[in-house]
Queue: 4 jobs
Job 1
Amino acid sequence: MGNWAELPYDLIVLIAKRFKLLKDFILFCSVCTTWRIAGTKEIYKVLPGPQVPLLMLADKDDDYREFYSLSGEKVSTIFLPEARKAECYSTKGWLCTVAYTIIGEMNLLHPFSRTQIQLPSEKDLWALQGYGPVEARGLYHCVDKAILSASPSITSDYVLLVSYYAGVNNLAFWRPGDLNWNVIDIIDEEWGAFSDINYYDGQFYGVTNGGDVWVFDIAGPNDPKPPIVEPRLLVHLEDDMFGQAGTEFYLVEVSGALLLVARFSHGGGSLTFKFKVVELDVIKGDIKEMKTLGDSAIFLGSNAGVSVDVSKLTGVKPNHVYFTDDWEEQFTEMEGGGGKDMGAYNLEDGKIESFYSELSLSPICPPTWVTPLFFPIKS
């Protein structure tokens, strides 16, 4: 058999353009460098129809990463040395990677083109809070969420917002052209740590463990306004679910509405046993419990929360919450690391079933959802 990389470039492009399923496209891009370039440098629109997020399996401390397809029930392996021994936070089809080192080098990484955008480091985040040498903190997860306002694949006018811990819970953002992180001043109160952040309808939203929902209007790099952010408290939610140990909260857009999802366990690192979903009215500042997601499924974890209409898709069930292990504070203390607390929660009957039968563990980067959006990567 001849060398596949020596096929005429035009022929490789024609092959790539015939794919309709994400899993086939990924297999195509993993053949060799020539095929990967042909698949990502040409003029691509989003693959037809909604794409089911892939489960990026745990870091194995080598140059390859495995991706599990729910629809195909198959694992694909790609060469991705840039993600080796790095925490990975998925957002808008990209990974915000944090090297598991003292400096904590950070990048935005497109996992299927291996395009990288250099960011200020995790060490720089700590310096914003007046901390000196980071050796004193040891090697544990500092960043817990990274959210893009738009995909760097299609625009340079975007903002990256990160939630991180440096003595107290903090938020900071970066925009193309910024030399360092820009800190966002938040008054830290009891139970004031941010449980989740996400981007919705042109603004960033954050929810704290105590039930405060904040809104952040951050000017992009193309906006002439100065990068001064005045956080606005949208509403303080009164509910028994807030302030409980072993409870996490997420924000996710479903069918144009902003939903607040509560995840209940018996304590940090314990197995999840229940979810509660409420719709957040960003105008009135109140909530309404939802009993069904209709044809949608939600995907939560250390990724930016996303939803997909799965009515015409296989391998994914509607009205389910697919979740991965994100109890980061316990990852280094667990045998083998994090990755055990995964499943699909049925909102109708409250049952949890497995969607991946193998055990995939890592103290650095356990399995997480990745939703690639295949737009042309700018040269």
Note: The chain has two domains: 1-42, 43-370.
Job 2
Amino acid sequence: MIDESPKQKIASKLEKMFQVRYLALIVSFFLMLNGILAIALGVKHLWETVLILFGNHDKGAGSSIITSIDTFLFALVILILAGGIFKLFVGNQNTFKESAVFSKLNNFKDLKVLLWETILLTLTVWCALGFFIDSDKLLYEQLILPFTILLLALALNFIKKGEH
């Protein structure tokens, strides 16, 4: 049996330390933390909506509800990204096996498609929010986003058809 030199021992320890698994665990943890903070921000928007509705100020309640929904959807995107990174890089096949969302993730492409669908939904709500908030002054920039959403949806459809 060949003994390793001290340099080789240090190199092997560093190699184990810099595996993608540990980096993915750190990234997943911080993404989860950001998702929780985004949920807290959504709760804040929702609380402001409740105060507007029960304070007999009907002005702005609709846009405040859509803002809170948009914030919750953005938090969902972040949490899906965190869970997907954890399952693909840190966990194994049995990680999240009870979850309807993460149980079907087997590779990075599955995570990408799941995120793509969630981001399309979030963009749709964000686009609707833009039309509700600035309904008096519609600009041509607001027309670009619906076409972008349509193109992204068509591209996702082509990718899904290519799988089957």
Note: Helices lie at 6-17, 20-54, 61-90, 108-133, 141-163.
Job 3
Amino acid sequence: MLKVVEIFYSIQGEGTQVGVPSIFIRLHGCNLSCSFCDEELHKGAYEELSFEAVLERIQTYLSMNVIITGGEPTLYDLRDFIAFLQGHGYFVAVETNGFRFSHIANANWITYSPKEWNHIAQEGFHEVKFVVGKNAPLEKILEFKSDKPIFIQPQNESDKPNFENVAFCVEFVKKYPRFILSVQLHKFLGVE
């Protein structure tokens, strides 16, 4: 059984797969309490759903691209669920703060968004996303090296962009072009 907060259909607004129509499965809970969290739903009500019940719901959407998000999905060992979805033809991506990469090791795509920049993992993911505000300790990001895409994402409000942080991040990636800007396109478009 999975603790599911919501299932919805939208576009991916972040990272390498920006613009891809995707089915989002938001799971309950997180191991962190970030002051800048832009998604509080993971702390509230949830349904306990079987794999089959989740499949029944997502089959109503046209996309075969699933994104498991939270909160923090790796609180749960999701390997069997990921394999179940893949067995039905889905491409499965997971967004994680890196709590337990082993719980999602068989995902097709892993977006790693570290929140503790003193201990950034070096493997187990396909892309990295740093959520950055104008007062972020940028030296930690600058020290990080990877052959994977490294995104700088402005710290935004829960439902709209923070244009001060957006401008800061634009200047940052222009100064350090090995980084890529990811702006949370869905917030600019006003979609979920």
Note: The chain has a mean pLDDT of 90.
Job 4
Amino acid sequence: MSPVMRTRRDGSTRPARHRAVQPLAVAWLLVVWLALWGDVTPMLLVGGVLVAVLVCLTFPLPPIDLGSSVRVLPLLGVVARFHLDVVRASVQVAGVVLRRRPVRNAVVAVDLETTSDFLMTLVASMLSLIPGSVVVEARRSTHTLYLHVLDVPDAAAAEEFRRTALALEQRLLRALPPRPTAPEAR
């Protein structure tokens, strides 16, 4: 992975510097610290901030650029639809288990449109959290997910699952559209 480059006023580039102590990282570490202690006191708050800063200084990470912006309303729609899909799939999996007949499973390949590793990971995670499917392989080079899917009796059912997965990707692309990249200087 290449380092993040910053463009100077004169057109030259230099590696971007990053702060070792990032406020968002400190906040998350503080939340984890307080959750581990199970209490909130002034002493735990001060101690948690100190531990979080120490962790950030000891293990510095570059800032993460997700490469996309956030559209709140479509994102809320993605979350609502995800919850609906989890409930629906749970009922379907329960039906498969209770009907006591042979089940045919399949590995379905889904070629994603996005080239973003972040969105590919998000699609893979959401599909794995929905009962009845799990990612068995993710090919970063071709942006293809291979999912083991429960109760796929024929090719039409496999194609229906593929369409469902691609629809999830499209909803995520509407909620988290990629930021336009600046043209590279020559």
Note: The mean pLDDT is 87.
